[in-house]
Each structure stands twice: as C-alpha cells, then as structure tokens.
Amino acid sequence: MTRTALLTARILLSTVTLANAGSLGRPCTTTPQNQWLSLDVLQAKVEALGYKVQKAKLKAACGELYTIGRNGGRIELFVDPTSGAIVGKP
Q1: Containing domain of residue 37, as a range?
Q2: Number of folded domains that form the chain
C-alpha cells in the first residue's frame, strides 16, 4: 500500500510541475483575446531579438514559442500576447 501511495504522489507532483511550466503558473495578460497580436507578429518580434522560432502557439493567455537561441540551444519562451515582450523562460 505504501508503494502505491508513493507512486500516486509522484504522478500528481509531476502533473502539477508540468501544468505550471506550461503557463508559468499564471496568465501573461488579462487583456481580451481580440486585442492580442497574431502569432506571426509575436514570432517576428521574438526573431528580431535573435531567436529562431520553430513552433508557436497561444496557451493560457501566453504566447508559447519553442526556439533556438544564438548558442544553438533550445529555449522555450513565454511572451505577452499584447506586446510580444518575453515574460518567462522556464
């Protein structure tokens, strides 16, 4: 029974960690979605900062961009969809 409880706790903790990483644990903006920039504009703003965007999506009121940095490493960025400002790098 202890082993089952430990496994259940481990699964729950990993689920919570993934949920927080996906949205930084908070929205990037409270501005209505009809006032957000398009994904193309968000991608252009991030690329102007020197990142190469591989994939972009909107999730939990954040722009979530999967990029390659200047050093060639993969970097996930969270951006404010109203301005394109980077608000987090998990």
Answers
A1: 2-88
A2: 1
